[in-house]
Amino acid sequence: MPAPAPLHQYLIVDLSAGIAGAYCTKILADGGAEVVKIESPDGDSLRTWSASGASIDAGTDGALFSYLSSSKKSAVIGVDEADRLTALLHSADAVIWSRESPFAAVESLTPAALLAAHPHLVVTTITPFGLEGPWSDRAATEFTVQAWSGGVVGLGRGAPDRAPIHICGQIGEWFGGAYASAATLAALRSAASTGRGQIVDLSKLETAVAGLTYHPVTFLELRERPFRSERSIFVPGVAQAADGMVALGAATAQQWSDLCVLVGHPEWVDPDAPLAITARAGELAPQIYEWIAERTVEDVAEQATAFRIPNSPVVNGANATDMAHFGERGTFVKNPTAGFSQPDRPYTMSAFDLPRPEAAPRLGEHTAILTEKREAKAAKYTGESIGLPFEGMRVLDMTAFWAGPSCSHILATLGAEVIHLESTSRPDGTRMIAGVPMTDELWWEKSPIFSGLNTNKKSITLNFQTERGQELLRELIKTCDVLVENYTPRVLDQIGLDYESVKALRDDIIMVRMPGFGLDGPWRDKAAFAYVIEDASGLTWLTGHPDQNPVEPYTIGDPNAGIHALNGLLIALAHRDSTGEGTLVEASMVDAALNVAAEQFIEYSAYGALLNRQGNRGPVAAPQNLYQTSGLDEFGRDDNWVAIAVETDDQWAALRTAIGSPEWATDPALDTAAGRRAAHDQVDERLGAWCRERSDDDIVAALWEAGVPVAKVIQPHRQAGLEQLQARGFFAQVTHPVNGTASHTTLPVRFSGTPEGPTMRSAPLLGEHNTEILTGLGLSAADIEVLEQNKIIGTKLAF
Fold first, then answer.
1. What is the SS3 assignment for 797?
2. CB distance 579 to 104 below 8 Å
């Protein structure tokens, strides 16, 4: 008889509204949790939602709702009937809560009231800015939160002669939802051992900082300059081929040299050229694009792959299911409610099958569950701190760059002993992003990016290309509960460390593999940088101005893979807790990205609607855009912007009053969302003129006070100056033995059970813990000295 689903023991009450909460509870339901969605008689707003505006027949639900609500239950109560939830909450394990829900204003259903009445509950709150702080009650949308985070500017995304570009597809909602499910599962692990619940307070502003920007504050403080100060279009980036769009990347000197040879111009390679790669590529862009335009997508990709140049077709809602790689891997499945195509779950387990999704519930289909007799759960209620959820867990971290380390970073911050494995000849690539010459003493210890991603970890250097190195690696694996790796699949396979071999070393180990495109399929060995994953998943397709080629986000593909891998690991841990069985978790980067871009594929499959780029507009708010303001930015450029998004008719009325009720704004046609959307160009022109005469500070003060979602489009390195992040202690001062002291991000979630928060320790020096870890394996000081002499371990780079 098969083991029950890993999360079968959990009852989750969903008091949220919107994509973030729905995606959070989808992940939990997919893992086998019983999720009961509480709805008002009007039903969840997603039941009638379509991003393309498709007509939804009466009595049926929208495709996105059917996707997000598979395997859930629906119970209907009025907002004045909160007492009907008492029995359910007494027997529940967690509540997912957001302010958008009609139940959020009910006094007995506030987070504090829920925990006071039911102290065993994990109450996860998903809000724009967090439950506390000066901005906690401010109006916001995913678009304005992204602006406040610095993510609109990101890594210099977009051409400098146009407005900056936000990452489209409501990405902050999806990423925030994935983070909320991981935080909930972590808190449930604590509850299982302590019997106590707590409030898990997630801020979507902070998840946007974590997912859309690349430790810019740490970089600024350590290097005394911004990581990037100008916007640009990366070349080649997305280009038009003879039969579609294809993307090529040239992020390193080697990739640029290979690209020059690929397009037939080896003479372009000049190591002494005064221009940086980005500038040189921009100069030669017309010839590069001409070469691509003469060839098919398949031909360009095949030749680029042969040169190890990162590449991908540009995937969208219409062509995704035609990709041979996705077809061979069974990436898309049929929705159990309506039969349209949707991405399958972002991870697979070797030891067990996750339950297949069931049809989404009809409104109120399971209301009778509110009167079912269930065993009430009690809490061991003491005043002591709950502690960190991963204390006592040892993790071998064989990851590099951003995707893998972002997963293990959360484990380390929440108490796990995380051992980051490198070698002196093959260090983590983020050590190279130091912003200092490689001639500086200890330059490899000076990377702000490495520092930000690896706080609280230990470091061992081990050359596992040697026989002795492999022997020691195997001994180390035997001591670890979890192994996380994000190499290309062939690396571990070539040294005999596939999952079956690792399992032979430790039977209950959980091995999380994070290949870019999976462990099999035609794209198995493709290079997988964040932007390639974005190209291959639809995230790039939606981002950019409608009259230009798509623009790669260049960020979210990595941390999104990390948080989904963490969800997979937590589900696997729940399975091991109940069965004692380990498993392989395959969590490919592209599958994680396809899941947060799911709306594109669903809209096309269900309604035949191809979602396209809208610049800085979006499907929810109207008006929504970036508007230029007066004054110069910190670099002396006329490049200051604010983000404004009006989601409701009341917000429009408030905006109209705040700008002085000009005649154009009093047109009755603008009183409705449909009218404002139809007149979006005219509204943009007039609202833009009003903003152009004012500073960003004045605009934010006027509109925010009136209850209108608004934000400055800040440079990402200015995040630490936001009073909301300061109030929540999002940045911690961390002292590094080489770099000194600088601000480092913590986690975008606060756990009330550990109000003091985690202790933040500096990222390790290369090989700093060699002696400690190897001594723990039984080696003597003399043994360790021999390893150093033979360059199997070390503390200095060997190249």
1. coil
2. no
Pairing of strands 348-349, 641-645: unpaired
Dist. CA 187–CA 182, nearest whole Å: 9
- For residue 1, name the pLDDT band (cuts at 50, 70, 90): low
- Helices 530-537 and 557-579: crossing angle in degrees, nearest 10, is 90
Residue identified by tokens 């230009």 is 548
Q: Which ranges constitute the DSSP H helices of 330-423?
A: 403-413
β-pairing, 641-645 vs 458-461, is: unpaired
- Distance, in Å, from the CA atom of 656 to the CA atom of 640, rounded to the nearest integer, reads 22
CA 160 to chain centre: 26
For the question of whether the overall pTM of this predicted structure is more than 0.85, the answer is: yes
* b/e map 74-112, b = 16+ CB within 10 Å: bbbbeeeebebbebbbbbbbbbbbbbebbbbebeebbbe
Q: What is the DSSP letter of 793?
A: S
Q: Of residues 291 and 373, which shows the higher confidence score?
A: 291
pLDDT of 381 over the 70 cut = no
How far apart, in Å, are the Cα atoms of 229 and each of 153, 155, 225, 543?
10, 9, 9, 21
**Mean local confidence (pLDDT), 318-332:** 97
**How far is residue 49 from each of residues 103, 470, 680, 738, measured CA to CA in Å?**
20, 54, 20, 53
DSSP 765: P
Query: What DSSP designation does 131 have?
Result: S
Tell me the C-alpha distance between 360 and 26, whole Å: 11
Encode pLDDT of 353-369 as tens digits: 999 999 999 999 999 99
> What are the structure tokens assigned to 19, written together?
């994509």
Q: Would you say how long the chain is, in residues?
A: 799
- Residue 20, C-beta contacts closer than 8 angstroms, at least 6 positions apart: 98, 126, 172, 173, 174, 176, 177, 180, 204
Q: What is the DSSP string of 548-585?
A: S-----SSTHHHHHHHHHHHHHHHHHHHHHHH---EEE
- Classify each residue of 648-679 as buried b or exposed e, where b means 16 or more C-beta atoms within 10 Å of its C-beta: eeebbbbbbebbeeeeebeeeebeebebbbeb
Residue with tokens 């870890």: 773
Instruction: Compute the distance between CA of residue 119 and CA of residue 195 in angstroms, rounded to an integer.
Output: 9
HEC letters along 276-299: CHHHHHHHHHHHHHHHHHCCCHHH
CA 225, chain centre distance (Å) = 26
Q: Cis peptide before 623, with omega less than 30 degrees from 0?
A: yes
| 3-class DSSP state of 628 | strand
Max Cα-Cα span within the chain: 85
Name the residue among 369, 364, 469 with its Cα closest to residue 78. 364
